[in-house]
């Protein structure tokens, strides 16, 4: 627990399920105010908000498409009108649809870029406007992936967005460090979330995935949330421009293990 987070306000995009839900609920444990963003799952968002309240925080749900400027501004405006400030932004919303690169149509390519990368830029830009104008020494946390450095077959669009998140993080970090605004990223590995295709595969295929993880276990959203809480807190107040790999060692290339 990080006492300095109590009463602070955060926006967590894509927080009706998965990693975003885990982060939002952890912020509730820290007694923060949380704007819970969703696109198509109002029930999931309501469940997240209720858990936040039960954990001691405050919450409000907002439907927003992060690729739309007007919707991002709605998130910012809601944070300020409901809770009086914006201290933390977590750019979590993202998706991918596996497709052989030679068959990937431009519409799918563009939609993945719009949500995963452009959405993170728009939200960061609007948060930075607020934080600089109100002298808030805030924290922006981008949810990336091990695939910002590890290519993944049939996911060229996803990998490109996550590589872009790395440079977005580093560029904004150096640009706004003097104002006390920290920008970092978390790169999860294989995480147990709804829709993760690994859990739709055979036991043999799942074992092959585990063999790629030195810790021999699939990660959990609450483990990613613990990293996010630390990055948001004053305990990490000298950390900016970093990507923290929370992947059980996947990026250590366990194929080298004997």
UniProtKB/TrEMBL annotation:
Keywords: Oxidoreductase. The keyword Oxidoreductase applies. The keyword Oxidoreductase applies. GO terms for molecular function: oxidoreductase activity. One of its GO terms (biological process) is bile acid metabolic process. Signal peptide: none annotated. It comes from the Bacteria. It holds the Pfam family adh_short_C2. PANTHER family: 3-OXOACYL-(ACYL-CARRIER-PROTEIN) REDUCTASE (PTHR42879), 3-OXOACYL-[ACYL-CARRIER-PROTEIN] REDUCTASE FABG (PTHR42879:SF2). Belongs to the short-chain dehydrogenases/reductases (SDR) family. NCBIfam families: PRK07231.1, PRK12826.1-2. This is Sugar dehydrogenase.
């Amino acid at each position: 627990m990080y006492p300095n987070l109590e009463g602070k306000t955060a926006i967590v995009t894509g927080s009706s399920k998965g990693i975003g839900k885990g982060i939002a609920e952890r912020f509730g444990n820290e007694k923060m105010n949380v704007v819970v963003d969703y696109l198509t799952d109002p029930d999931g968002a309501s469940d997240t908000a209720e858990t936040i309240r039960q954990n001691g925080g405050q919450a409000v749900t907002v439907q927003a498409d992060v690729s739309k400027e007007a919707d991002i501004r709605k998130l910012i405006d809601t944070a300020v009108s409901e809770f009086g400030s914006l201290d933390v932004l977590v750019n979590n919303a993202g998706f991918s649809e596996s497709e052989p690169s030679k068959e990937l149509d431009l519409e799918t390519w563009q939609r993945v870029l719009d949500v995963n990368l452009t959405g993170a830029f728009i939200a960061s830009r609007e948060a930075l406007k607020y934080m600089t104008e109100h002298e808030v020494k805030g924290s922006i946390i981008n949810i990336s992936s091990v695939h910002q450095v590890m290519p993944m077959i049939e996911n060229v669009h996803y990998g490109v967005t996550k590589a872009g998140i790395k440079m977005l993080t580093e560029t904004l970090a150096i640009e706004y460090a003097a104002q006390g605004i920290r920008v970092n990223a978390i790169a999860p590995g294989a995480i147990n979330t709804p829709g993760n295709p690994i859990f739709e595969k055979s036991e043999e295929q799942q074992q092959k995935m585990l063999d790629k993880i030195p810790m021999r276990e699939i990660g959990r959203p609450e483990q990613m949330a613990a990293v996010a809480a630390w990055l948001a807190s004053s305990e990490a107040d000298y950390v900016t421009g970093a990507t923290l790999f929370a992947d059980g060692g996947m990026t250590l290339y366990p194929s080298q293990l004997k």
